[in-house]
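As a warm-up, study this chain.
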Amino acid sequence: VSLAALGRCTMSRATDGSRAPLLDGSQDADGAAAPPIESLDELDNAVLKERNATSGGRTRLCTPYLAFTCVGVLVGLVGGYFLSHAGLSEHDIVLVGFLGELLLRMLTAMVVPLVVTSIILGVYSIGEVSGAGRLGRTALFYYFATMIIAAFLGVLLVTTIRPGDSSKAPPPEDELATVLSGSIVGRFQDHNSRNVSTVDAVLDVFRHMVPNNLVQAAYETNILGLISFSLFFGVLLSAIGEEGRVVCDFTKAVNKVIMRFVEAMLLFAPLGICSLIMARLAASEDIFGQLKDLGLYFATVVAGLVLHATVVLPILYYSTTGGSPLQFLLKMAPAILSAFGTSSSAAALPLTIKCAEEAGVEESISRFVLPLGATVNMDGTALYEAVAAIFIAQVNDVSLSGTQIFVVVLVSVLAAVGAAGIPEAGLVTLLMVMQAVGLSEYAGSVSFIFAVDWLLDRIRTAVNVAGDAVIAAAIDKREKRRRKLID
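Now compare it with the structure written out below.
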């Protein structure tokens, strides 16, 4: 079904009676000759032109996909709630989430080739080192600016609402040792005999940027290392001129094949997302009881994420592009919902690139900025880290000074950037933030908030993806204005 649908997209007619050109220039069914297509670029342009003619500029695939994904999310939420009271065994929950596991595997398999080919083509299409550097500096400026705003927003909400004052105290330290003995905290401490400081977190970011083995980096999905390699490879490929054209054409063909895979996977994604959500809810023994105990904390984090997604990001989009933020975010809705379902910016990256390009972002921008954003830009994570650290201080009756709160903001941003290279990133980076402000002795309190972290993680991942898309659109508009001034 997927291959047939893709075939129809490339060979169907436009509503005005025009015909899609054929690859070999042969005659169509009516006997009229069509001009040959000699490159993949011409094929893509012909397909895009035909799609726009048949759908008034709207993508034919994303509209039903968005509807089916919304239905999948709702069915997953409702079905998961009822299954959570059905007393399912661990084996039954695995079966419920099996389709979702397959979806994650397929998406994850596409991440490495998509990131490498997209970054190489993005840098190569820019054509000069200075152009790549300009885009990189602009992207990093937007990334850090939005993350700092998100962290300050989280601090403002948590210090105003003070959810820790009304929450139950966490278990005592000796009980926490038992609770966390087999957890990821214990594994992390066994793996790292030294304490993880802010300096260690920053150094780890640079270590992951320079992998000592590219095959191992691909195996471990070290996106930061793959991005740095692809950046240099694209710059050098552009520098050698015509000799690098063959490699560029090969890379472009691989990239287009990966995007065709993504289109095919879209037909399966709503079912997989439904399976993931349903299995996660089914594994929760008492979701409403957990929300009751941590209701104010949960509401504070969600309020910050919603404000950032509905106020900060739309203001940034409108101020930089002059367009409608609502229309743009609706076009990005399939990618945002995919991020919510998979809880992974990297897994949602193929769909994020596809939706951004269909929303008007140029390939050279989307395939350079979005893979970088999926690793560096973590607005939701920065906000969450700031709120969680101050919440734990409030629960333990610890007052933080203004300087300590500023340190929380700073370290939350740095920890969010380095999160992609650290296993079980949410827990480990939170411990870094707590250590930076002298809350290491309350590290056991982290288990108190992780009862609802799985749901918050999905929401903040969706916000991360929305932020990536808005920044890509802002940079795209900026580059178009720049080229217009030069012309």
